[in-house]
Amino acid sequence: MDKPQFSPSKGTPVNNFGTDNDEPYPSLSDYHDYEPNLEFDDSELQHSTTVLAHTVDMIQAESNSMGSPISDFTDDNFEEELAEACEENLDSLMFCSTSYPEVGDTAPEKFSEISRYGIVDVKGDDADGRKIIVVYACKLPQIKEIDHGLLLSYLKYTLESYVKQDYSLIYFHHGLTSKNKPSIGWLVQAYKAFDRNYKKNLKALYLVHPTSFLKFVSQLFRPLISAKFGKKLNYIHRLKELNEFIPIEKLDIPNEVIEHDKKLGGEVPVSRTSPDSVFEPTCPTQQFGVTLQYIRDQYNVIIPPIVKQCIEYLDQPDALETEGIFRRSANANKVKSLKEIANTGQKVPFDDPHEAAVLLKKFLRELKEPLLTYELYDEIVQFQSWNNDERLRLVSILVMEKLPEDNYKVLKYIIRFLSRVMERSDLNKMNAQNLAVVFGPNLVWSDSVSMSLAAIGPINMFTQFLLVHQNEIFMI
């Protein structure tokens, strides 16, 4: 049916990064023999500051024996910082009861003074469909210029919707100095302030350009960190290493971090893809990474076969009622295998709902052009500025008149299915807001700027509006 018209590197190989079974994530730093080895027993950390002092001496001795200075953490006062940490009452840090405002206790407008720094950002999805959250130490202002209690509230408020699903966290350490670093006590309190969901759904933590002191602090936190959480931590010494897992062009890496990487001997990788790159499918039956028009020409259908297979599998009652559907990862190797099968034109054999859910998101994310098209991106990110009384009319015009007809039909097919997911939200916990957070950045993105927290907000709101008002927008 036609759409209606609407009138106005080397070392130990890293495995299991895409799994959902909390398998160990080997450190990428194992082969850097110039970095001090900070392995010591947790119990020693908990009962004795003397052990901390001894560790400081050990680190300094190892560094001196190798003839290289310790990588700085706070300008030139590395030893002083360590001494201060040792003088603190570690027990009081570990079990401090200082409370910070819960999400919602602070009015969102109060966060504008924090958000302007760009300390934290959300950069779309990684290759396994997990949200990418980025923290830039170099964007932290001087201590006297920021309220760290307000910063913690802002972080919780901003990230709350994204950490309900599996996600990856990237921390760029370069740029943290004695002038802008939070205290160790604040770090402990911040760690404790984030509830279990923040830690449970974190699937990979990348520490980029770690210094010796950062590794020391990581060990300091070991009594507070579960074994599962510790296995997710990965030291990344060069941007080229990070690019193996997440394309760095997605991350808006500050120039000073790039320059620091070059000084360390790194080479900034060339972008893997370009909007202007020549479109060359690898086989006639390819479905991933191509255009909707290509799939239509090859298969003579409007709805891509893989989209139909995923949705038909997920439309079964047991699948629809799966808690956290679309939030969880699936085994990366299995998903890769299923993608290869789909690209041969064969029917995909799913073993569980999460595989089908991840593959559907992956298909949308890898389209040559987003389903809602590059052309409509600028309009969609202005959604929050639209008058409430005009939103239904404007969204309907955008979807029914401005979208190409094939895109409209595929979008309608997906949104109708998601409405059935919402009907089972009492069991699967996926309401319109949760689904919008998952699908929004996979439906539209720009061909000229990377995804950011500022853009994701209105994109998610637009998607949620589509879901809530789908009966009015997608006329039968």
TrEMBL record:
Residues 1-36 are annotated as: Disordered. The lineage of its organism: Eukaryota, Metazoa, Ecdysozoa, Arthropoda, Hexapoda. PANTHER family: RHO GTPASE-ACTIVATING PROTEIN 68F (PTHR45808). One of its GO terms (molecular function) is GTPase activator activity. This is Rho GTPase-activating protein 1. Residues 110-272 form the CRAL-TRIO domain. Residues 290-474 form the Rho-GAP domain. One of its GO terms (cellular component) is cytoplasm. It holds the Pfam family CRAL_TRIO_2. GO terms for biological process: negative regulation of endocytic recycling; small GTPase-mediated signal transduction. Residues 1-19 have a biased composition (Polar residues). It comes from Diabrotica balteata (Banded cucumber beetle). InterPro entries: CRAL-TRIO_dom, CRAL-TRIO_dom_sf, Rho_GTPase_activation_prot, RhoGAP_dom. It comes from the Eukaryota.
